[in-house]
Amino acid sequence: MLSYLYVAIGSAVGGLARFVIGTWLQRRLDDWAPRTSVVPYLPFPIGTLIVNVSGSFLLGAILVVVARQGQQGNALRLLLAIGLCGGYTTFSTLSADTVGLMENGGGALAALNVGASIALGLLGVLAGSFVARAMLGRA
C-alpha cells in the first residue's frame, strides 16, 4: 500500500511542476515570438519540449542513483522515477501539441516537435545518466 502512496505523491508533485514550468516557458516564448500579417503565428510547444527533455535528464540521473541503492532504492524508484518523472513528463501533451500543429498548417513544426522531443529526450536520459555517474563514480 505504501508503494501506491509513493507513486501518488511523486505524480502530484511532477504534474504540478509540469504545469508551472511548461506554462511559464510557453508564455515566455509567446511573448517573444514575432507576429506579422505575412507569417501566421503558430506557437511552438516549447514548454512541453523542455519539460520532456528535462524530465528525461532527471530520469536518467535517478535511475543511476536508484540502481546503486539495491533493494533500499525501491521507494526512491517509485517516488521519483515512476511518480515524479511520470507525472512531470508529458508524452500525451506532446501528441496533442503535434496534432494541433498539423491541424493548423504547421506540418514542418509538427515534425520538428516530434523529432526534437524524441532525440532530445534520449539525449536527456543519456546526459542525466552520465552526470550522475560522474558525480557518484562509476559502478
Short description:
By secondary structure, the chain is mainly α.
- What is the makeup of the main sheet? none
Tell how many strands the DSSP assignment holds: 0
Give the C-alpha Rg: 17 Å
Low-confidence stretches: none
Strand content: under 5%
Envelope shape: elongated
Helix content range: over 70%
Instruction: Say what oligomer this is.
Output: single chain
- Look at the helices and sheets and give the structural class: mainly alpha
Number of DSSP helices?
5
- Mean residue pLDDT: 88
What is the N-to-C order of secondary-structure elements (H for helix, E for strand)? HHHHH
Distance N to C terminus: 32 Å
Characteristics:
139 residues; 80% helix; 5 helices; mainly alpha
Give an overview of the whole structure.
The structure is a single chain. The protein has 139 residues and is mainly alpha-helical. 80% of the residues lie in helices and 0% in strands. It contains 5 helices and no strands. α4 packs antiparallel against α5 (107-136). It is elongated and about 55 Å long. The two termini are 32 Å apart.
List the topology elements.
Elements: H1 2-32, H2 46-67, H3 74-88, H4 91-103, H5 107-136
Helix pairs in contact: 1-2, 1-3, 2-3, 2-5, 4-5
